[in-house]
């Protein structure tokens, strides 16, 4: 499905609405509707249970969004949480200078891939990709250009060299996508933190920030948690919560928002052990994604070209979004940067006494950080499919189906009386609904023909539909229709929970990797 269809499906079926629609919307802010909030909560539950419940050495917290302003000084966000901003003087549109250059590099890459694909088609089985990309003049030229621009961009970003970014945009003759003009301002740093003011203190002193990441709430509580939960290193602290970033260009639906939700886990380890744990978490996080049914071909690791100020290793798990492979999750080896900086600025010791080594040290940290909204978009775009299926009278019809993993589907089971004008049937259906609703998220629906009701449930990803018909009155059995296979099983009412349990509960999923 293309991206536009995904966005309109999300609205039409109550997953996501743009914020403040009656006031012409607020850019890059979104609200989750009735089905959206269920799916989002299920994603969070899957993450939380696989981190906290599955690991006896990981515990959770829920820190406040506001933190002491010194937090952001120590973490480096006041000085370094910037993006390079450039304005086009004709269209008055703002861009991230690095993104304009990255898009240019992507185009060169696409040209090279096109040549390679053409040659692969021409040579068939004989095609040797390695040989071709090192010997074909055109491809060699494209790849060399891509390489040199990527290096120059990384270098300029690392040094904060705004002049070179501007020069690159000029050298590459990049035009504004809106106006087509090359009439650019200089590139300048733009801090992404939103600030606000405390009620009882005037001026700079009372300046507060909305947290741009949840991680700092974990670092500041490191000792509180370690002491009160009696954890020994290595151990982790997990948190799910809102984060805010004043993104310059917030596009691509819920991929890049100004208010979003993060699921982060900081794993505290002995200095020197961090690379071992970094590999461990890379592996486990990939398995977490694949357990939901995401094919390996839709996920890939991407090492950072440009390491953040706090990291000694960093990798993204990228997902094949409808607009290309993009970051879904980050795994970062953050060294002792954060705890050491907070220790220095606060004057309070943030150390751990290691009974085995018989000494104290500032632990190193490996973090896994995933955007809940990006995960939501990944699940929506991967699962939404259009299919040709046989319908009741033997003909073919198309259906839109959301093939979510059953345990994260917003509604697990729909209860549908075959007809609505027979009280014996509707009453029986309601009785089943009133019982099953204690077991899992159910929906009762008696409106419209059964085929249309099935389609409605397909569109929101309901894995099971239970139909109560005339025979049910006698044999006390129902028909369970499976969303993906369309198979229909006849099952006694007393066995419904047993048939659904492993699919809709998360236990089997959590045990599967
Ligand atoms: P990007 O390079 O896309 O801006 P980032 O490297 O700044 O992302 P991190 O700081 O590593 O992102 O944040 C961790 C995770 O939080 C990301 O992997 C992403 O899933 C999510 N995230 C970050 N910024 C946003 C945003 N503006 N909207 C939605 N999710 C976000």
Lay out the secondary structure.
Layout: H1 3-12, E1 16-18, E2 30-32, H2 34-53, E3 58-60, H3 70-74, H4 77-80, E4 82-87, E5 94-96, H5 97-123, H6 129-135, H7 137-159, H8 162-171, E6 188-191, E7 195-197, E8 207-209, H9 215-220, H10 222-229, E9 235-244, E10 259-269, H11 274-291, E11 299-303, E12 313-321, E13 324-335, H12 337-346, E14 352-354, E15 359-361, E16 364-371, H13 372-383, E17 384-390, E18 396-402, E19 413-417, H14 423-436, E20 442-444, H15 450-460, E21 464-468, H16 470-475, E22 477-482, E23 488-492, H17 496-504, H18 507-511
Parallel strand pairs: 3-9, 19-20, 19-21
Antiparallel strand pairs: 1-2, 4-5, 4-6, 7-8, 9-10, 10-16, 11-12, 12-13, 13-16, 14-15, 17-18, 21-22, 22-23
Bound molecules: adenosine-5'-triphosphate.
Could you give a short description of this structure?
The protein is an alpha+beta fold. Helix content is 40%, strand content 25%. The two termini are 29 Å apart.
Low-confidence stretches: none
The proportion of residues forming helix, as a percent range, comes to: 25-40%
The largest pleated sheet is described as: 7 strands, mixed
Q: Could you give the order of strands across the largest sheet?
A: 3-9-10-16-13-12-11
Q: Write down the Rg.
A: 27 Å
| Bound ligands, named by name, code or SMILES | adenosine-5'-triphosphate
End-to-end C-alpha gap = 29 Å
Number of domains: 3
